[in-house]
Amino acid sequence: MELNIEIHLSAYSRINEVNFNDLGFGRYFTDHLLIATYKEKAWQTAKIIPFQDLSIHPALSALHYGQSIFEGMKAFKYTDGSAVLFRPEKNWQRINTSARRLCMPEIPEDLFIEGLKLFVDIERNWIPSGQGEALYLRPLLFATDSFLGVRPSEEYLFLVIASPVGKYYSQPIRVLAQKQYVRAVRGGVGAAKTAGNYAASLLAVQEAKKKGYDQILWLDAIQLSFVEESSTMNLFFVIDDAIYTAPASPDGTILMGVTRDSAITLLKKWGYEVYEKPLNIQDIIQAYHKGTFQEAFGTGTAASITPLAAIGFDDQEIMPIANTGYGPISQRLYETLTGIQRGTIADELNWLVRVPEYIPFT
Ligand SMILES: Cc1ncc(COP(=O)(O)O)c(C=O)c1O
User: Which of 93, 165, 255, 297 most suits a substitution to test ligand 1, by most atoms within 8 Å of the C-beta?
Assistant: First the structure.
């Protein structure tokens, strides 16, 4: 390994405080964190240290001006007991796409990938092995100048924290398409995984929940007609045996999901027609009335493959034929993806990265 990294192991593990029978999501954190500082235009030596609070300056520029980006990825317990990462190079590429958009320094590949492998190796006892469970990894980069004034920060912190998690959604979800709020617009930061995008989505989701929905189905910001994504997942629609999903690019309006890309790759491999193009919500409504709206589902690291039970729009509600659970396509995707991640299905596409055992446990 090229990476020079200092390791300070915790004297005590909190693992016995965790209720592994009811993990929830993002509730528990492992014993360590990975931390690296960027200053004087260079990355300083990374460290793995005991999990701890950070102290912050009240003028911390991430808090005031929002230079804060992150990733979400998972380490899985493989059939042979080892730990694997799923397509980590995709998350590395995406965090750097986000970094460029937000005028932040890019993260070197060895810091991100090798740092994560070493970190996951140290936390390997925390990877849960139940159905739908994994160690969720949260790389995070934010601006740390203590300075008031709108300009890119000169100093940054890169952190990785980890949380053993269960399923994010335990059942099909109901989404609301509405025209009052938008998530992203062409030329904005929709394709960046930046904190403000999530803050901006909260009010719409809160109001949707009051109307009996779980999430928003975001429409495009200009015509308020084309389906984009949800706040936690990319979305797919199966109409008349063809599959549609919104187009994604680094300067686009949706997040370039790793699960989205994996789903498209598998679907094409299986011979399905997949269209990455704008789909008007009226076309979905029409298909519903014709009886050809077969399935709808979301894809995401946290959500895996989650079926949509219903879509609310303009005081009406439509639902795919498969509205109480997985349909044939989402079921096959869910089983294949989770099978590859856990080692019960061969990793023919080389998506998994093994975590070597660097650190012998005493
Ligand atoms: C807004 C948004 N879209 C899509 C996704 C799915 O992306 P991925 O499959 O890389 O987790 C996420 C989750 O990270 C998200 O937050």
Answer: 255
* SS3 of residue 196 by DSSP: helix
**H runs (alpha helix) in 102-231:** 109, 115-122, 195-210
| pTM as predicted | 0.96
Check pocket membership of 258 for ligand 1, CB cut-off 6 A: yes
Q: How many CB atoms lie within 10 A of CB 64?
A: 15
pLDDT digits (tens, 9 = 90+) for 181-215: 999 999 999 999 999 999 999 999 999 999 999 99
Ordered by where they begin, the domains of the chain are 5-167+351-355 (3.30.470.10), 173-326 (3.20.10.10)
Q: What is the pLDDT of residues 16-67, one digit of tens each?
A: 999 999 999 999 999 999 999 999 999 999 999 999 999 999 999 999 999 9
The pick from 232, 249, 306 for probing ligand 1's pocket by mutation, whose C-beta has the most ligand atoms within 8 angstroms, reads: 232
Burial call 279-290: b when 16+ CB within 10 Å, e when fewer: bebebbbebbee
CA distances from 122 to 4, 50, 157, 351 (A): 16, 11, 21, 22
Q: Is the CB of 73 under 6 A from ligand 1?
A: no
Query: Are 213 and 227 within 8 A, CB to CB?
Result: no
Regarding the beta carbon of 32 and ligand 1, being less than 6 Å apart is answered no
State the residue for tokens 């209720």.
19
Task: Tell me phi and psi for residue 269, to 5 degrees.
Answer: -60, -35
Nearest CA to ligand 1 atom 5: 233
* Helix pair 328-342, 258-269: axis angle to 10 deg: 110
Q: Is 257 in the pocket of ligand 1 (CB under 6 A)?
A: yes
